[in-house]
Write a structure and sequence with these properties.
Elements (H helix, E strand, L loop, with lengths): L5 H43 L63 H20 L3 H14 L4 H15 L8 E5 L6 H8 L3 H7 L12 E5 L6 E6 L4 E6 L2 E7 L2 E2 L7 E10 L23 E5 L5 E3 L10 E3 L3 E2 L2 H10 L5 E5 L1
Parallel strand pairs: 3-12, 6-10, 9-11
Antiparallel strand pairs: 1-2, 3-4, 4-5, 7-8, 7-12, 8-9
Helix pairs in contact: 2-3, 3-4
């Protein structure tokens, strides 16, 4: 056969076609084998380690987020409504057994015996201070004793006897101030300035008449900052004076027969020394007349016809014998007249 004949050319093409098919077949088998082997390796690798990445995933860049290891399967939980609170700080470890914490012991309330003992000690201290000339210290100690033993007759008697010598003198008290007399000062002006009676200023500073000297230092009760008040008991027939709510002095009184004394809170509106008695339906009876029942001083209340006054009948004190007013001994009503400013509150109770 000639080299360039047609059959030879056909045979060559067929041989080439076979060779090409075989090549494709071999390549296909090789690729399938590679894929099969790779898949088998991936399957085996997934069972050998949980951290190996699949071979066909793209490589992670340096900035890519690394996914955490998948946790073991757990039962489904409710979705979180809010971020969990931070864990509480760890509690302090308990003390070792060799040094247990001491039990907390609540203080016991004071008993009557301890309170009485405290009161007795403070009252003894009050008497010692008075003997040493410390009137204010004695008063304070006695007030402390009375607070520990309210209503104690002995302590109240001590305070009764101390009250006027301390207040109506130049002895110092926290309730007093010092005033240096200036040009233009006079007793009425000072009384209005400090809301304290002229009679108390004069008595406390031993002023004779109404003369005060420029440059003189006076001790005055500051009635703007420190307040007297009166409490009258109809059943006990007594009157207690307080200063800033603290016991000052107790007086015996007479109240109205047949409960004629009114109950309530009133105030002193007027103060009169040597009063005339304006008896209802009659002419005024002058001071000093035998029929004048008001004694030496009158403190009018803001209830017409009622007030506090003295008496010429001391035996009537402590009883319900008045026509409705509060009746005191003349010496006692004079003290109240001296120390109480207008506007002082008077509370009357059954």
């Amino acid at each position: 056969m000639e080299p360039n004949s047609a059959p030879d050319i056909y045979l060559m093409k067929r041989e080439k076609s076979r060779a090409g098919c075989m090549t494709v077949l071999i390549a296909t088998v090789a690729v399938l084998g590679i894929i099969t082997v790779a898949g088998l390796m991936r399957w085996l690798g997934g069972h050998e380690t949980e951290t190996a990445a699949p071979a066909d995933l793209p490589a992670l860049s340096e900035t890519a987020e690394v996914l955490p290891e998948a946790p073991p399967p757990v039962p489904p939980a409710a979705p979180e409504a809010a971020p969990a609170a931070p864990p509480a700080p760890a509690a302090a470890p308990p003390p070792p057994p060799s040094a247990p914490a001491a039990p907390v012991v609540e203080p016991s309330p004071p008993t009557a015996a301890t309170t009485a003992g405290d009161a007795a000690g403070m009252f003894a201290q009050a008497r010692e201070r008075l003997q040493a000339g410390d009137y204010q210290g004695a008063r304070q100690a006695a007030l402390d004793a009375l607070a520990a033993r309210p209503g104690d007759a002995g302590i109240e008697t001590f305070l009764n006897e101390l009250a006027m010598p301390l207040l109506a003198s130049q002895r110092p008290m926290p309730e007093k101030i010092e005033h240096v007399v200036q040009a233009g000062d006079y007793l009425g002006k000072l009384a209005a300035t400090y809301n304290t009676p002229v009679a108390l200023i004069a008595k406390a500073n031993n002023i004779q008449g109404a003369t005060i000297r420029i440059g003189e230092t006076l001790r005055l009760l500051d009635g703007n900052a420190h307040v007297f008040a009166l409490a009258v008991s109809k059943s006990r027939n007594d009157l207690v004076v307080t200063l800033d709510g603290k016991f000052f002095k107790r007086y015996r009184v007479s109240t109205g027969a047949n409960s004629m004394t009114p109950v309530g809170t009133f105030k002193i509106t007027d103060k009169i020394a040597q009063p005339a008695w304006h008896k209802p339906g009659a002419k005024a009876i002058p001071y000093g007349h035998p029929d004048n029942l008001l004694g030496t001083h009158w403190l009018a209340l803001d209830l017409p016809g009622y007030g506090l006054h003295g008496t010429w009948e001391p035996d009537s004190i402590g009883k319900q014998t008045s026509a409705g007013c509060i009746r005191l001994l003349n010496s006692d009503i004079e003290e109240l007249y001296t120390i109480l400013p207008k506007g002082t509150l008077v509370t009357i109770s059954e």
